[in-house]
Amino acid sequence: MRGDSASTISEARLSRPSAGRLSLYLRHLEALIGEGGAKVSSVQLGQALGVSDAQVRKDLATLGNLGHPGVGYRPQELIGAIRQALGLNREWSVALVGVGNLARALLRYRGFQQQGFRIVALFDADPAKVGQCIDGLEIHSPDQMSSVIARTGAELGLLAVPSETAQTVAEGLVAARIRGILNFAPAVLRLPESVKLVSVDLAAQLEQLAFLVQMVGNESRALNTR
Amino acid sequence: MRGDSASTISEARLSRPSAGRLSLYLRHLEALIGEGGAKVSSVQLGQALGVSDAQVRKDLATLGNLGHPGVGYRPQELIGAIRQALGLNREWSVALVGVGNLARALLRYRGFQQQGFRIVALFDADPAKVGQCIDGLEIHSPDQMSSVIARTGAELGLLAVPSETAQTVAEGLVAARIRGILNFAPAVLRLPESVKLVSVDLAAQLEQLAFLVQMVGNESRALNTR
């Protein structure tokens, strides 16, 4: 294995939670660069993101030997290494299925474009929407999925359809040889092993918030009754 | 501490990642109930959500002694215990700031209502939108935030504004005594310790997907060159 590049080795070692944190470091480093920051320490990164500095150093060590004694990390250098490890040193073409309000928000979400995600194809089952254009993109019927996805080279799919149709639409994307799906429907999807799935459960995020808020309430009540 | 209820004790012990998994168990159990399931094992739950059955048992043990020998868990019983632990055995009133496409999608997102989250107040800085109604809710100007939030009893805030204004708007919500914020803007927010924050970074979710898809590509290339 000695002939392999360092990046391939570190990618293989990168765990899913560690990759999640790398995304957060990336976002913070980009903000730091915007503010003109020329160096950053593991303590600063940890404090900004609520993880220990030991965890930060462990995560960043998977990228290679990037710490500079007496300096810390150089943000621009870290950004390059993180983007390579996450597979963001290239552009990803994305197909979006279900052109409702969420899809319109996603189409204009600048965070996607900034990170190299480009929406190249739109699909909707509603005949009234098929043929319309949004931001220069034509809305296609789902039965054109295979040909449009092959033509546009979309590798990732955004699923913004209601729960009831999510599984069927996801299977259509799989048949059209999409490699990964970001699912916004509050539904559990079953996909073949070869197609990757990330689900954004918005209610679960709100539940996390309610849980944290309730914890604060319980703690202060516990303090008051002592 | 003997006089405390079991739920208070378990809430205090519940870690954030464990709470996140409880949300996922909850979603899966609700789907299971919908399909008429009367029992479920830690192995089944683990397989459905991609965690080990040991982790499932550990997470569910924080809720009390709910496993039945020879049966496993009873979904309805688990749902009740999880909802109580997460603070979902009540309704939460929510204020939504920034009435664009994302907000319209969130307003109609059934997952929120199903879990007891009710959007009760809308705010937008655009004078052309102030005074309009969506789904029976009037859009208010941000300078009415304190009075409207006090009147409606909103405790949680959904932030669906552009990155540039996110920090200012969040500070307005804090001043209006909101207890927690779910942030959709791709921006790092600084809030007082007493106000809880959960950020939904949609680009980070797409980055996770790209990372997973890229990993598959690397693995199959590595296999091919052996």
Per DSSP, the total helix count of chain A is 10
Give Rg of chain A in angstroms: 21 Å
Q: If strands are numbered along the chain, what order do they take across the biggest sheet of chain A?
A: 3-4-2-1-5-6-7
- Number of spatially distinct domains of chain A: 2
H/E element order of chain A = HHHHHEHHEEEHEHEEH
Most extensive interface between two protein chains, with residue counts: A-B, 70 and 70 residues
Q: State the oligomer.
A: homodimer
Instruction: Return the structural class of chain A.
Output: alpha/beta
Number-wise, the strands of chain A total: 7
Helix share bin of chain A: 40-55%
Share of residues in strands of chain A: 5-15%
Mean pLDDT of chain A: 86
Specify the CATH architecture of the largest domain in chain A: 3-Layer(aba) Sandwich
Give the CA-based shape of chain A.
Answer: globular
What is the fold named in CATH at topology level of the largest domain in chain A? Rossmann fold
Indicate the CATH class of the largest domain in chain A: Alpha Beta
Low-confidence spans of chain A: 1-12
Please describe the biggest sheet of chain A, giving its number of strands, its sense, and whether it closes into a barrel. Answer: 7 strands, mixed
